[in-house]
Amino acid sequence: MKSKKNSIKKQPFSPWVALGVVLVTLFAVLCLLPLIYMIAVSFTDSETLYIKFKDLRPDLYNYWYAIVKRDFGTALKNSIIVVTGSCLLVDIVSAMAAYGFEKKPVPGKEALFQGYLATMMIPGQVILIPMFVMINRAGLTNTYSALILPMVGAFGIFLMRQFMVAVPNELLEAAEIDGCGEVRRFVTIVLPLVQPALITLTIFTFNAAWNNFLWPLIINTRSEMRVLPVTMSTLSSNSTTNYGMVMAGATLTFLFPFVLYVFLQKQFVEGIALGGVKG
Amino acid sequence: MTVAGRARRRVSPRTRRQIIIGLLYILPSFVLMMTFNVIPIFLSAFFSFTKYNMASPPEWIGLDNYARLFTNRVLTESLSNTVRYVLITVPAQTVLSLLIAVFIAEHMKTRYGSLMRSVIFIPVIVSLIASATVWNIMYQPKGGLINQLLEFLGAQPVNFLGKKASALPSVAVVAIWKGTGYYMVIYYAGVMNIPTDVREAAIVDGATPVQRFFHITLPLLRPITYMIVTLGIIGSFQVFDLVYKMTGGGPGRSTYTVAYVIYTFAFQDKNYGYASAVAICLLVVILLIHLIQTVCFKEKDEVKQA
After folding, report:
1. N or C end of chain A, less CB within 10 A?
2. Looking at residue A52, what is its pLDDT?
């Protein structure tokens, strides 16, 4: 068995393979280059883009300027609140729904579940205008709720249900016989068992909420309620040529998902590979 | 029949309790899904038959909005731009991600290969607005990174985003940069799912790597390719953030896209009824793409079974 595997691994060296490795490496460099440039300019004290060594300033002045003078602090705070709220809400609501669909004898649940899945095909622009009207009517513009509540979607419930199948019914029945109540069973048995799915869902919700742009742009128009991408979008249109500060803002926006990616790379990639993810 | 029917109707108190508890678990998701996903579609359909600016109640005008769709120059231009954008981004990101995934899976099963995969995925996590900002600065005619490089090579600087011919492809490049890693991850998982003995048999039979790619790997990856092309078309059809930040639809109307037009009709012109009609057409197009994909899938499955 092992020797067979080696037969695929070890093929005679060929110049074509070497060329392929070089091309893949080149593509990876092209992927990183804009981000390296972004970080480099964010540490540059310059109004032109010709970076010279004498313009490099290894301090956080541009970051300080973006956060304190250009509202990035407020935006950062808003983004963190919205992301935290979204992750909590989506995790709880999706896990509850998945448990109800998978483990409870609700009549007509499969039809409802198919209905949920069908909503994944709806493009965001189609529901944008009615949602704008509804949130306006409800007086929820310029609130965190307006950004958090619409984050619940069929994808999370679908993902949780995939993992809920693996929770053994015998375990739940045994716990019930032992006198373990409904809520306690859900919290102390089911949730720990589906923890990997909860982590994956948290990553997806984090990214979706952190990068969400069009909806926050139209619904939270007051400057003290803006989130990071919206503040980012107002920056360079203000006719500033302070590229260092703009790039510091972009780096800040990039930093949080990047740290998450470094630590939870496996979950990121597995979640996407699971397929059917909303692009 | 009647016995079974009666048995089904006689629900034990325990089961009834379980049903009620189950409903309570599903209820929060039901309320949110109805409010933010289902009701808005019907409202959108309703608005599309009205004249509506939010200041006064919607006024029913029948099919007027739809009748004015196809004579609108802005709309037909944006549609052709969007199709052009799809035709640039989807083939490029599909082919790139396929080649990279297959090559890494076959020839770079090392630490270095997995490092390359991790690096190529990084642009996926950058927000569209941050990507647009960085690339805007890279595209600057004076001193942008790309033009610095062109200058270094002795070429004339190019105003990438300021020229009608180059603006849309320049936006598409950013989408390809950001999207390839995402699709590569899906393809890579697909290649790893191909049983090793299938590929081994081909090697034993003396098939060259190119023959293996076209006769084994590619056909086995066909369902994934369908999915990736569908996801790609739908994603590209809805491009908004990049256009908003990078070009604002310009120069002229050369980068107006369908999603951008919906935004301007609704939130700049306050013409919510007309914008809704455009949105409903977008929905129909996207549902059609889904339908075509499902039909293709079914046919392939039947061929396989036969």
Report:
1. N
2. 64
What's chain B look like in SS3? CHHHHHHHHCCCHHHHHHHHHHHHHHHHHHHHHHHHHHHHHHHHHHHCCEECCCCCCCEECCCHHHHCCCCCHHHHHHHHHHHHHHHHHHHHHHHHHHHHHHHHHHHCCCHHHHHHHHHHHHHHHCCHHHHHHHHHHHHCCCCCHHHHHHHHCCCCCCCCCCCHHHHHHHHHHHHHHHHHHHHHHHHHHHHHHCCHHHHHHHHHCCCCHHHHHHHHHHHHCHHHHHHHHHHHHHHHHCCCHHHHHHCCCCCCCCCCCHHHHHHHHHHHCCCHHHHHHHHHHHHHHHHHHHHHHHHHHHHHHHHHHC
ipTM: 0.86
The whole-number pLDDT of residue A255 equals 92
Superfamily, domain B72-305: MetI-like (1.10.3720.10)
Q: Both tokens of residue A158?
A: 């679908």
pLDDT tens-digit map of B21-69: 999 999 999 999 999 999 999 999 999 999 888 888 888 888 888 988 8
Provide the chain A residues 52-81 that lie in CB contact (below 8 A) with chain B.
Answer: none
Interface A-B: count of C-beta contacts within 8 A: 282
Interface of A with B in 258-277 (CB under 8 A): 258, 260-261, 265, 268-269, 272-273, 275-277
Q: Give the long-range contacts of residues B166-171, CB within 8 A, separation 24 or more.
A: B167/B247, B167/B250, B167/B251, B167/B254, B167/B255, B168/B81, B168/B84, B168/B85, B168/B88, B168/B254, B168/B255, B169/B88, B170/B135, B170/B139, B170/B246, B171/B85, B171/B239, B171/B242, B171/B243, B171/B246, B171/B247, B171/B255
Whether A57 maps to a domain, the answer reads no
Q: How many residues does chain B have?
A: 306
pLDDT in tens, A106-151: 888 999 999 999 898 888 889 999 999 999 999 999 999 999 999 9
Q: Is there a domain that residue A155 lies in?
A: yes
Domain that holds residue A224: 70-229+263-273
Nearest to A133 by CA among B267, B68, B259, B61: B267
pLDDT number for residue B1: 44
What is the mean pLDDT of the segment spanning B174-190?
A: 93
Dist. CA A44–CA A52, nearest whole Å: 9
A130:B44 CB<8 A: yes
The pLDDT tens digits of the residues spanning A86-107 come to: 999 999 999 999 999 998 888 8
Alpha-carbon gap: A193 to the closest alpha carbon of chain B (Å): 18
Q: Where does CATH 1.10.3720.10 sit in chain B? A: 72-305
Q: Which CATH number belongs to the domain containing residue A91 in this structure?
A: 1.10.3720.10
Angle at alpha carbon of residue A170, lines to A168 and A175, rounded to 5°: 105
Which residues 94-153 of B are in CB contact (within 8 Å) with A?
A: 96, 100, 103-104, 106-109, 116, 118-123, 125-131, 133-138, 140, 142-145, 148
Q: Is A109 exposed, middle or buried (0-12, 13-18, 19+ CB in 10 A)?
A: middle
Phi, psi of A275 (to 5 degrees): 85, 165
